[in-house]
Amino acid sequence: MIKTEKLTKSFQGAEVLKGINLQVDAGEIIVLLGPSGSGKSTLLRCLNGLETLSGGSIEMNGVRLDTQMKPRERNQNVRTIRRHSGMVFQQFNLYPHKTALGNVIESLLVVKKLPRSEAVAIGKKMLERVGLEGKLDAYPSRLSGGQQQRVAIARALAMEPDVLLFDEPTSALDPELVGEVLDVMQQLAREGMTMLVVTHEMAFARHVANRVVFMDDGQIVEEAAPEVFFDHPATERARRFLNKLG
Ligand code: ADP
Ligand code: MG
Q1: Hey, what CATH topology would domain 2-245 get?
Q2: Distance (Å, rounded) from C-alpha 157 to C-alpha 177?
Q3: Which residues contact 179 (CB under 8 A, 6 or more apart)?
Q4: Complex ipTM tops 0.95
Q5: Which atom of ligand 1 is nearest to the CA of 215?
Q6: How many angstroms separate the alpha carbon of residue 108 from the centre of ligand 1?
Q7: Which atom of ligand 1 is nearest to the CA of 168?
Q8: Cβ of 11 less than 6 Å from ligand 1
Q9: Which of 12, 28, 134, 171 is the most exposed place for a label (fewest CB within 10 A)?
Q10: What is the 3-class SS of the chain, one letter each residue?
């Protein structure tokens, strides 16, 4: 579903991704771990076409991005990749002046140009999927953080993505609201969604991930099944990271 080869990304000459080779199969749940500044968000943003690559390539479901291709083809492929991947951010990024349903159907109307009735039917179904069928008309300010994040997940799901990218989806939530978001993510995992998740929720990583990818300093340092990674990390850097978590 996703394959990156020697993916690099620099900001003003500073290389923050230093040759990432990552493969994600359909239906896999990958948890991406690593210290702050190791490049996790940048990697997700590259995968979603929010950052241009400095080198190497990305392929998502057969659609390619590299630095050699003509701008026209690249722009077209970036659009395709954005349409086929959904991103969920730490700060939910909902439109404050739109209801829950309004947020979920916005891209269906604007990007997919569906008729309103069709978009509303999909939007209702997606909000039901995240347990918010009772909140269709609620504005974000009237929703808890956990509910807002579930609206954001419903919004991503509405576009029928091939893959969902989560960047610390529970880090901005009060502790008592984390569980309801993780429950929705776990349900999506069970349904076979392909997911790449940056999170500090180690219990989620251990129990839901098929594979843990550990990054440090712009590189993938270690990749393993969660029980192997947590109980027998192979590298000193991973051991240090895990020890700090306590
Ligand atoms: P993580 O998500 O693992 O904490 P990031 O991907 O956010 O790491 O950042 C990796 C490195 O890239 C950091 O050193 C950060 O300062 C730098 N960085 C990220 N985005 C930008 C940007 N837009 N401009 C300059 N530097 C950036
Ligand atoms: Mg980050």
Answers
A1: Rossmann fold (3.40.50)
A2: 20
A3: none
A4: yes
A5: 3
A6: 31
A7: 2
A8: yes
A9: 12
A10: CEEEEEEEEEECCEEEEEEEEEEECCCCEEEEECCCCCCHHHHHHHHCCCCCCCEEEEEECCEEEECCCCHHHHHHHHHHHHHHEEEECCCCCCCCCCCHHHHHHHHHHHCCCCCHHHHHHHHHHHHHHCCCHHHCCCCHHHCCHHHHHHHHHHHHHHCCCCEEEEECCCCCCCHHHHHHHHHHHHHHHHCCCEEEEECCCHHHHHHHCCEEEEEECCEEEEEECHHHHHHCCCCHHHHHHHHHHC
What b/e string do you get for 41-56 counting C-beta neighbours within 10 Å, with b at 16 or more? Answer: bbbbbbbbbebebebb
Q: Any idea which ligand is nearest the CA of 90?
A: 2
Q: Where are the domains of the chain?
A: 2-245
Q: Which ligand is nearest to the CA of 34?
A: 1
Give pLDDT tens digits for 18-29: 999 999 999 999
User: Which residue's CA is minimally distant from atom 16 of ligand 1?
Assistant: 37
Counting Cα atoms < 13 Å in the Cβ hemisphere of 189 gives 22
Residue 167 C-alpha to ligand 2 middle, in angstroms? 7
